[in-house]
């Protein structure tokens, strides 16, 4: 529909908003607060302790920052939406949300790739670690992790902004891949562009991560026990995060392809998993599984208890 010359899309992914309005509200506020607090604690602990000023922990802090940005691009609008009588978004706001959503998703995968490379150098080439993972190289990794996805996704969003709309209803609770269903036509150029973005920002990073971990475990399990323990302690949390994030990306693809064929309740459950698991579980997994971070978080909690 159009309001004062602005194209407005209705978000039809919620179930019975009138009766469950405050349930949704409490849930989203609680999740947003927990996500902010847990990720801020990880960033704060890494920031103030010099022993954690190493590439691996810097990448973890960057992932937490990414989770904060991702959640802030989604949750405040969700909270406002559930309190409104009609859940909607202008087409321009929807495109902005898509741009932020997929740029940060791509950044997550590239940050995980940087962590995989860091672990590979640390375990497979320990004598070259200082030269290969210096501060300048880490800064370059971080810059590219946010810059490259932003460039890729911006091109796709600009192309989509020029497409004609034949529907003004999205079957989700926020703007994501389901937006392809509301365009009158999907030109071959758009499909090819989307495929290129998917390959560059998802497939290649995942293959790179898997390749580095195959090399890491091949070297680790052919070495002494200390190297094996180091590989398991530092790599297992990273692999858990990668598997979790890959599943969430798969969920998003499934929603985009099968949106009209999936029951509404299933679409809502999948959408909530995309919003909750990664930004919430990243700090929990790293906070519990990484011994150095866990140790400092316990000290931080004790200090807070004494205040």
Could you give the order of the helices and strands? EEHHEHHHEHHHH
Query: Which range best describes the helical content: under 10%, 10-25%, 25-40%, 40-55%, 55-70% or over 70%?
Result: over 70%
What value does the average pLDDT take?
A: 82
- Category by helix and strand content: mainly alpha
Distance between the termini: 54 Å
Helix segment count? 9
DSSP strand (E) fraction? under 5%
Largest sheet report: 4 strands, mixed
Please, could you describe this protein's structure?
There is one protein chain. This protein has helices spanning 17-48, 55-83, 91-124, 129-132, 135-161, 188-220, 225-258, 264-289, 291-306; strands at residues 2-3, 6-11, 88-90, 169-170. With 307 residues, it is mainly α. Strands 1, 2, 3 and 4 form a 4-stranded mixed beta sheet that branches. A hairpin with a 2-residue loop joins β1 (2-3) and β2. The relative contact order is 0.14. The longest helix is centred in the middle third of the chain and has 34 residues, at 91-124. It is 77% helix and 4% strand. α5 runs antiparallel to α6 (188-220). It contains 9 helices and 4 strands, in the order ββααβαααβαααα.
């Amino acid at each position: 529909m159009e309001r004062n010359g602005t194209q407005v899309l209705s978000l039809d992914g919620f179930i019975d908003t009138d009766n469950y309005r405050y349930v949704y509200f409490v849930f989203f506020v609680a999740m947003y607060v927990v996500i902010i607090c847990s990720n801020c604690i990880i960033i704060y602990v890494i920031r103030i302790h010099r022993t954690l000023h190493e590439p691996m922990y810097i990448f973890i802090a960057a992932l937490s920052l990414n989770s904060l940005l991702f959640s802030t691009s989604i949750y405040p609008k969700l909270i406002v939406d559930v309190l409104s009588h009609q859940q909607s978004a202008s087409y321009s706001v929807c495109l902005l949300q898509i741009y932020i959503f997929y740029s940060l998703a791509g950044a997550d995968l590239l940050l995980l790739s940087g962590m995989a490379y860091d672990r590979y150098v640390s375990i497979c080439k320990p004598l070259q670690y200082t030269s290969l993972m210096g501060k300048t190289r880490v800064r370059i990794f971080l810059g590219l992790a946010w810059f490259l996805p932003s460039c890729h996704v911006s091109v796709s969003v600009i192309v989509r902004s020029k497409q004609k709309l034949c529907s003004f209803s999205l079957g989700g609770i926020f703007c994501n891949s389901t937006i392809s269903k509301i365009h009158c036509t999907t030109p071959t150029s758009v499909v090819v562009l989307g495929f290129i973005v998917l390959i560059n920002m998802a497939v290649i990073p995942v293959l790179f991560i898997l390749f580095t971990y195959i090399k890491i475990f091949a070297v680790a399990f052919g070495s002494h026990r200390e190297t094996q323990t180091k590989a398991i302690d530092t790599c297992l949390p990273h692999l858990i995060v990668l598997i979790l994030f890959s599943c969430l990306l798969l969920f998003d693809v499934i929603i985009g392809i099968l949106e009209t064929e999936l029951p509404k309740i299933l679409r809502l459950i999948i959408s909530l998993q995309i919003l909750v698991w990664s930004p919430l579980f990243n700090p929990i997994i790293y906070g519990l599984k990484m011994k150095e971070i866990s140790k400092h978080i316990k000290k931080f909690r004790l200090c807070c208890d004494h205040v």
